[in-house]
Specification:
single chain; 796 residues; alpha/beta; Rossmann fold; six-stranded antiparallel sheet; five-stranded parallel sheet; 13 strands; globular
Length: 796
């Protein structure tokens, strides 16, 4: 392919340097974005009198909409359902207001009796504070000076005649208006809010359609944005209500036990005031503390009340809120505080109350609109940088200690081998990609030194349980440059966990002298590591020299950074190698297979689960193996294939010895039963779905050609598949009957959300088989970049 004059090719990495630019369009877009943001903020401030009631109404509608929808589902007309919900809310609020009003009147009647207690406490405090203090002398000096100045002014100036301004008489109408105007404004606002709530609940579908039209563009993306915003805000409001109630009820009961009057009033006030972030709890604590001060002549009631408030705050903030909130909003702590400040500055106290729901809406827009993606970065609670990027950045900043700390945290959450596979190699990929594009000489030196320190630290802190002994069986050689050799260090450490002794050899210029100095007489396998995007020529030359010097050695090419389109055309035999691997996990498994090491567990045959006999009994009780549900299960398999856009999907059931395909989306080859059910069957030992049954977890193989455990699997060869994903089909009692499986002739990946969706479809299959309502299975595990499995990890 011809290169443009502005680009240049780097033979080391196989990448083209990008053309230089002055960034003019980006600067123009940035300025336009700032102007639009300024106009929006100005509009929010100027139109706050209209926007505040509307925002409050939308927030209330989010809370009441589920009740209205439930009434509509059971057959109540929508307008009647809206009226019923609003009347119920008004009655509850009215009843609570009457109860609190009665307590308030009782307190008002008892307040005069507390005056003597207050007077005595204030008198005692003033007596304790009397006596000489540090500032008494200074204060007396200031008072004396002030008196002398006042006396001098009075002696020099003659008193002026006093002029009294008599205001004109005020009419009764003006007096009434002056009294009613402050009260009518909040009443009018409340009326507007009620009208808005009624209209939104009455015709929320029309409002939804208008929002979809405003969002425009991709209808799928706009629908996801509305659903996410609605679910997050509704969940936040529900969790906020539960948190406040769980705080207000113990507060009221505690004040009742302490003896503070009006305990229902103060508990309700504490629950309501917690809707105001940050300042609400402090304001609500003033009233019970003040009343405890007024009621009890001693300080015991005040101290008990203070202890109660502090205890409830600690429990609520550190236990209840993290437990209930979780990630209900998806906002970071810093963005919550910044949002509270921003909306309070725009809309006052109401803005403080609405700050979290409004910011959630901004976060959802950032997630679903590419033009506003910066909002997700600024506001979201998800880490802005993934672990490989964080480690790489700390190495560039010459902060190897923090890079080691991040690496250790990742290893503690997974394992050393998974860290190398998912994070370590990815860091090296980014180093190799940036080597000629952006990195300066100082950056390259920092990364090299930092990687040396990090790997030395990891080898020391995480030694293998039983270090292998004897002669090295594997030599990992850097193919071209230093980063290639760093990957070899990682692989040697990872192979030690499999009981395989490996040595790392430095990279160098491939000459006869260099090959001779490698000293590979005792090794059985040589792994050549390459991060170049186009290593074919170099690798072929290296393999040729190695074959010439050591004819019996087996060679594995680790092509860490070759694009998939190029990798499809590369054949190991054409390059002079025995195998090609692309990930750390694949390299470990390929080498273990080639050495036939018993220390690495074999995965071709899955172990039977502990409840296998009960599981088989439950399977036979469903009668699904008699084939009477074939048509229904075929339809469910077809739905799964259509939803995930794969060529075919199957539903399997496994008994003691056989796997039966009880549902399939299309006709497939295979040995069939001879009892008239015409189901494809194979031995259980050859069934890939048996691994799902054994673990009771999801199994995802993104590319069977890259996974030596499944590349020659009978089921994979039978249907010529490159991708497999299976989730358990289990009874309400937890017995796994089989699996719902997706198969594709091309490699692909599934996100965690897609795996959960596949689990929901598996629950539908289980419900159809058992005739009982079944929930989606809890799919343990995590999605991994380039991993072989999900839920069933690679043996360490």
């Amino acid at each position: 392919m011809p290169q443009s004059p502005e680009t240049s090719h780097d033979p080391r990495t196989g990448l083209d340097r990008p053309p230089s630019g002055n960034g003019g369009p980006d600067l123009l877009h940035f300025a336009a974005g700032l102007l639009i943001a300024a106009l929006l903020i100005t509009g929010l401030y100027v139109g706050r009198d209209v926007l505040i009631p509307l925002a409050v109404a939308v927030l209330i509608s989010f809370a009441l909409s589920p009740l209205v929808s439930w009434l509509v589902r059971i057959g109540v007309q929508r307008v009647i359902a809206v009226i019923m919900v609003l009347l119920t809310v008004f009655l509850l609020l009215g009843g609570l207001g009457v109860l609190l009003g009665s307590q308030l009147r009782g307190l008002a009647q008892e307040l005069p009796t507390y005056q003597e207690t207050i007077r005595e406490k204030v008198s005692n405090l003033s007596q304790q504070m009397r006596g000489p203090g540090i500032l008494d002398g200074a204060m007396r000096t200031v008072d004396t000076l002030q008196k002398e100045v006042d006396q001098a002014v009075e002696n020099e100036e003659e008193p002026l005649p006093k002029v009294q301004v008599v205001p004109p008489p005020v009419s009764p109408f003006e007096t009434a208006v002056a009294w009613l105007a402050p009260a009518l404004e909040p009443l009018a606002t409340a009326g507007i809010v009620i009208v808005f709530v009624f209209l939104i609940l009455l015709d929320n579908s029309d409002l939804r359609d208008r929002l979809l039209r405003i969002l425009g563009g991709n209808l799928h993306r706009a629908t996801d944005a509305l659903e996410e915003a609605g679910s997050r805000i509704s969940r936040y409001l529900l969790m906020q209500l539960l948190v406040n109630v769980s705080y207000g009820i113990p507060m009221a009961l505690g004040l009742w036990l302490i003896g503070v009057p009006g305990w229902i009033l103060w508990g309700s006030l504490a629950a309501v005031m917690r809707f105001i972030p940050y300042v609400g709890p402090m304001l609500s604590a003033i009233f019970p503390l003040s009343l405890a001060f007024a009621v009890d002549p001693s300080w015991e009631m005040v101290l008990w009340t203070l202890a109660l408030i502090l205890l409830l705050e600690l429990i609520s903030n550190n236990i209840i809120e993290p437990l209930l909130y979780g990630t209900s909003t998806g906002l970071s702590a810093l963005s919550l505080i910044a949002a509270a400040t921003f909306w309070t500055a725009l809309w006052g106290p109401v803005g403080l109350i609405l700050s979290t729901p409004l910011t959630v809406c901004l976060l959802v827009l950032g997630r679903n609109l590419p033009q506003l993606s910066f909002l997700e970065t600024i506001l979201g609670s998800a880490p802005a940088l993934d672990p490989p990027t964080r480690i790489y950045q700390r190495l560039l900043a010459d902060d190897a200690d923090e890079a080691i700390a991040i690496s250790s945290a990742e290893i503690e959450a997974t394992s050393v081998t998974e860290f190398y596979n998912d994070t370590g190699i990815e860091v090296l990929r980014r180093v190799s990609q940036d080597f000629s594009l952006y990195a300066r000489a100082e950056h390259r030196l920092r990364v090299a030194n930092g990687m040396d320190l990090m790997l030395d630290d990891l080898r020391e802190d995480y030694p293998p349980p039983a270090p292998p002994s004897g002669q090295p069986l594997v030599a990992a050689v850097g193919g071209r440059w230093e980063i290639d050799a760093v990957a070899c260090e990682m692989l040697a450490h990872a192979l030690a966990f499999d009981g395989i002794l490996a040595e790392q050899r430095p990279a160098g210029v491939v000459t006869s002298r260099y090959v001779e100095k490698l000293n590979l007489d005792s090794v059985e396998i040589i792994l050549l590591s390459y991060f170049s995007a186009d290593p074919a020529g170099t690798a072929r030359n290296f393999c040729r020299r190695l074959r010439h010097r050591w004819p019996g050695v087996r060679i594995v090419l680790a092509l860490w950074n070759v694009p998939p389109t190029v990798l499809e055309d590369l054949k190991a035999e054409d390059l002079g190698a025995d195998e090609i691997v692309t990930s750390m996990t694949e390299a470990r498994l390929r080498i273990a297979r080639m050495l036939d090491k018993g220390e690495v567990p074999e995965i071709r045959t899955a172990q039977a689960p502990e409840d296998d006999s009960e599981r088989v009994t439950a399977l036979r009780e469903t009668m699904v193996l008699q084939g009477h549900m074939r048509e229904e299960l075929d339809a469910l398999a077809k739905r799964a294939a259509d939803v995930f856009d794969v060529p075919f999907a199957v539903i399997s059931a496994i008994d003691e010895e056989q796997e039966y395909i009880v549902g399939q989306s299309m006709e497939l080859p295979g040995r069939r039963t001879g009892d008239g059910t015409d189901m494809i069957t194979m031995p259980r030992s050859d069934a890939i779905c048996d691994h799902v049954v054994s673990a009771g977890e999801a199994l995802v193989v993104p590319d069977t050609d890259r996974d030596p455990r499944f590349s020659d699997h009978p089921a994979i060869r039978l249907w010529n598949t490159r991708f497999y994903a299976g989730v358990p089909v289990q009874t309400p009692d937890g017995h796994v009957l089989g699996a719902l499986c997706l198969l594709d002739t091309s490699p692909r990946k599934l996100t965690e959300d897609e795996i959960e969706l596949l689990g929901e479809l598996a629950a539908d299959v289980a419900s159809a088989i058992t005739g009982e309502e079944t929930e989606a299975p809890e799919l343990r595990g995590r999605a991994e970049n380039g991993s072989m499995t999900l839920g069933q990890r690679v043996p360490d």
